[in-house]
Fold this sequence. Notes:
Layout: E1 2-8, E2 11-17, H1 20-32, H2 46-60, E3 64-68, E4 78-81, H3 82-102, H4 110-114
Antiparallel strand pairs: 1-2, 1-3, 3-4
Helix pairs in contact: 1-3, 2-3
Amino acid sequence: MSKYYVQCGPIRTIVVSTSMERASLEALDESLQNHLWIYDDPGLREFDCRNHLMLEALVHLDPSIHVSEQGFDRSDATLLGTPEVIDRWHRLMTGMNRLFVAAGLTPRTMNAVAGTVEVLPSLELRSPR
Length: 129
C-alpha cells in the first residue's frame, strides 16, 4: 500500500491505499458522509441521489481531484475527474442498498451501515426548585 496526498477543493488529506483511484474515492468518502441521508429518503430515486451529489460537488469541490505520492500542491499530480469519482461512490452506496435487500437483511439506514453514530436528542436539564 502507498501513501497518497489527495486534494480537491476544501479536501486535503493523506490516504494509505492500494491505488490512486481508491485513494481519491476514500478521500471523497469522508466528505460525502454528510449526504448519506439521501439514500434513506424514500421519496428520492437513485437518479435524484446522484444529481444531489453532483450538485454538491459542483458547489463545493474542484472539477478535478489531485493525487500525488510526493506531496500536496504538486504540478505533476495525477488528475482524476471529480464527477467520475462521485459517480463511483454513488454506485457503491446504491449497490450496498441492493445487496442488503437481495440478502434479505433487516433494512438499516446508510448512516448505520457506515458506522456513523446517530445523534440522540439532547436531554433537557432542569435545575431543582
